[in-house]
Amino acid sequence: MLNEPPASFPGGWSHQTRKPGEKIGGARYILKKKLGQGEWTEVWLARDVKWERDVTLKFLPAQLLENGHLLEHIDDEVRRSAQLAHPAIARVFDFLYEPQAAAIATEYVDGWSLSALKLDRPQNRFSIEEINLWTHQVCAALDYSHHEFCLVHRDLNPSNLLLNGRDQLKVTDFAITHAIRNAAAQATDTKRSRIAYFSPQQLTGAEASLLDDIYALGATIYELSTGTAPFYQGELQTQILEVVAPSMNDRLHELGVNDLIPSAWEETIAACLSKDPGKRPQSASEVLRGLAKTWATSQVVSPLRTRLHSKKEAIRNFAFTKFRVWPRAIETFIKFRPRADQVIDAIRRNPRRLLAIILAVAAINLGIALWFLFRR
Predict the structure, then answer these.
(1) Rounded to whole angstroms, how far apart are CA atoms 252 and 261?
(2) Which range (193-202, 204-213, 290-299, 314-323) has the least confidence?
(3) CATH of the domain at 289
(4) 159 and 259 fall within a common domain
(5) Do 350 and 271 fall into the same domain?
């Protein structure tokens, strides 16, 4: 579920020793196994006895237990995040506090982060087709949180994007990691880490804005597309504040990768990474519209293997990719077969049958056209 854990927590922070079977939260939660270690939290899989479901418990460092004010601040952020109910957002359930432990209970996502998954890919990067699908889900989640609840994530990055066993993307830790990081900064002199996705305004301590998430979204897509964040070595803070990030194609060339990023993606991501928030796309939907220009001007359509949103869309794009059939033709075919899963199975078993049907329809249309032509 998580990336490789760091050797130790920032600032030498520590956690209480825990073991499977231990009961937390008045015996409501029973620890099952340790999943890993995040930047600031120790993560466990637990059983919620009350609701009979598996959850993720993210335990805070022991040092934070000493400051009631900071715990109240984290509790407030958890309450706000708990309002979010969206298919692409991992639910936040509760904040548990006991004298010996404090933990955040969230939805258990049985899968891996995109940050971890990309390590198994060539050049540590994904194809544009794959990222395109995930971007739709992330943008839908951001639009929902921004416009329905005025809630900014403030820590969006590939590590917080989890892909579950059904290939559904889940955005995790809305405002939570930010709250813990702020608590850590107040409790100790620990420096902020993982700032590669922070906007210049976020680095300088300006009030949180949805445009911070737009910057982070651009930095995230940049990394998934090229294998590295826009700035990934050297003095990151200075670069984020003063240096214009290289284009994604320049970064691929720098890394020796022979591939090409579509111009619409280059322009949109460059706008997301603008130092001036006024020059960034003003919503996640606007980011999607910019990226979508690639498909509007190209005959490249996501193939079936890229896990399309719906089976209907899968049929249309499979037919277009396999046989160069115009989507409207396959739409007509779908109307006569209400069970989309049966259509997909039929295409997979015998694609030539679909081709024969299409050729027959084309021949009929050609015959009608010739009849009208010579009738004149």
Answers:
(1) 9
(2) 314-323
(3) 1.10.510.10
(4) yes
(5) no
Instruction: Assess contact for 244 and 218: CB atoms under 8 A.
Output: no
Asked, for residue 186, whether it belongs to a domain, the answer is no
Q: Is residue 35 pLDDT above 70, yes or no?
A: yes
Cα(311)–Cα(24) distance, integer angstroms: 42
Residues 245-282: tens digit of each pLDDT: 999 999 999 999 988 999 999 999 999 999 999 999 99
Max CA-CA distance within the chain? 91
Mean pLDDT of the chain: 81
Q: How far apart are CA 194 and CA 179, in angstroms?
A: 15
Instruction: Tell me whether residue 241 is exposed, middle or buried, using C-beta atoms within 10 angstroms of its C-beta: 0 to 12, 13 to 18, 19 or more.
Output: middle
Helix (H, G, I), strand (E, B) or coil at 292: helix
Angle at 13 between CA 8 and CA 17, to 5 degrees: 85
* 185 falls within a domain: no
178 belongs to a structural domain: no
Answer whether 0.85 is exceeded by the pTM.
no
Q: Is 349 inside a domain boundary?
A: yes
**Looking up tokens 């900014």, which residue turns up?**
152
DSSP state of 241: H
Q: Do 161 and 276 share a structural domain?
A: yes
Residue with structure tokens 């024969």?
356
For residues 10 and 245, which has the higher predicted lDDT (pLDDT)? 245
Same domain, 319 and 349: yes
Task: With CA atoms as reference, report the closest residue to 300 among 119, 129, 48.
Answer: 129
pLDDT, tens only, 175-232:
777 767 666 555 544 445 579 999 999 999 899 899 999 999 999 999 999 999 999 9
Q: Which domain holds residue 358?
A: 304-375
